[in-house]
Amino acid sequence: MLPVVRSLLPGPTGEPALERHRLEQHYALPPAPARHVRANFVTTLDGAIEIDGRSGSLGGDGDTAVFHLLRELTDVVLVGAGTARAEGYGAAVMPDARQGRRLAAGQLPVPPIAVVTGRGIEADLPLLTPVSGAPQPLVLTTAAAAAQAPDVVRRRAELVVCGEETVDLARLLDELAARGLYRVLCEGGPALFSDLTRADLVDELCLTLSPTLAGPDHKRLIVGQRWNAAQRLTLAGGLEDNGDLLLRYSRYSR
Ligand SMILES: NC(=O)c1ccc[n+]([C@@H]2O[C@H](COP(=O)([O-])OP(=O)(O)OC[C@H]3O[C@@H](n4cnc5c(N)ncnc54)[C@H](OP(=O)(O)O)[C@@H]3O)[C@@H](O)[C@H]2O)c1
C-alpha cells in the first residue's frame, strides 16, 4: 500500500487560518478539571531555540499571535528559571478584552507565572516586581531552596515545595491542580521541557518551525540528561504563516 502523503501548501481551501475564532478552535483545551500540559516553542530548521540567548527574533507575527492566544487560554504559565532569567520574565499582562474572556471562562484575569527552580530564584528577577491586577508568581522548588529563599521572594511570590532535594515534576503538577491550575502552558526552556517529557508529563507540543538556519552552537529544544527511549508524537495540527509552520503535536492520538 502506498503511504498517504498530503499537501499542506497550498491548503485544501485556501481560507485564512489565522483568524481569531479559527485559532481558538485549533488550540482549544479540554475543560477544567481535565489536566493538560502544553509546551510551546519556536525553533529554526536546524533546531536552534535561541539566537544570542533569546527566542524573540525567531518567530513571525503568526507565532506571536499564537503565543498570546496560548497564554490567554491557559490556567498557568510554567517556565524554567533559566528562561525566566534569560528572557526577563515578568507577569503575563494582557489587554482587557483577553482578561474579560478569561473571566467569562471562569479563569483568573491573568494567568500566574510559575517558575521551576532547584537552586531558588534571585531577589532581583523582574518576575518579582508586583504588577497591578496580576497574581503573585509561584516559585516551584525544593524544601532546601525554599528554606533559604530571600525575604523579598517570600513576600512577592508563593513558594511551593515540590520535593525535598529535587523538584518532583508530577508533584509539581499536583500542586498546581490543587490551586485550580489544571491547564498548564510550559513556555520552556529546554531543560524543563526535557525533564517533563522524560517523565511523560507533556500532552502536547506546539512548535513553530521558522525558515531560518542559525548555525552551530545554539541551544536545542532538548538539553540535559539522556533519555531511555525516543518519544513519538502525533501531528495534530499544522498552520502556515509567511513561511513559518505552526505545528501542533499530541502525545496521544485524539
Ligand atoms: N525558542 C523557544 O521557544 C524558547 C523557549 C524557552 C526558552 N528558550 C531559550 O532557552 C534558553 C534557556 O535555556 P535553559 O536550559 O536555561 O532553560 P530552562 O529549562 O528554562 O532553565 C533551566 C533551569 O530551570 C530550572 N529547572 C528546569 N528544570 C528543572 C527541574 N526539573 N527541576 C528543578 N529545576 C529545573 C533550573 O533552575 P535553577 O538553576 O534555578 O535550579 C535550571 O537550571 C534561553 O536562551 C531562552 O531564550 C527558547
Mind explaining what this structure looks like?
With 254 residues, this protein is of the alpha/beta class. The protein has a single domain (34-250), classed as Dihydrofolate Reductase, subunit A (3-Layer(aba) Sandwich). The chain is built from 8 helices and 9 strands. Strands 5-4-3-2-6-1-7-9-8 form a 9-stranded mixed β-sheet, with helices on both faces. A hairpin with a 2-residue loop joins strand 8 and strand 9. It is globular. The model has no long low-confidence stretch (mean pLDDT 93). Bound molecules: NADP nicotinamide-adenine-dinucleotide phosphate.
* Name of the CATH first level: Alpha Beta
First-residue to last-residue Cα separation: 24 Å
CATH homologous superfamily classification = Dihydrofolate Reductase, subunit A
Whole-number radius of gyration?
18 Å
Indicate the mean pLDDT.
93
The assigned CATH architecture is 3-Layer(aba) Sandwich
* Strand order, sheet with most strands: 5-4-3-2-6-1-7-9-8
Label the overall shape: globular
Identify the bound ligands: NADP nicotinamide-adenine-dinucleotide phosphate
How many DSSP E strands? 9
Helix tally equals: 8
Total domain units: 1
Low-confidence stretches: none
**Residue share in helices?**
25-40%
Strand content: 15-25%
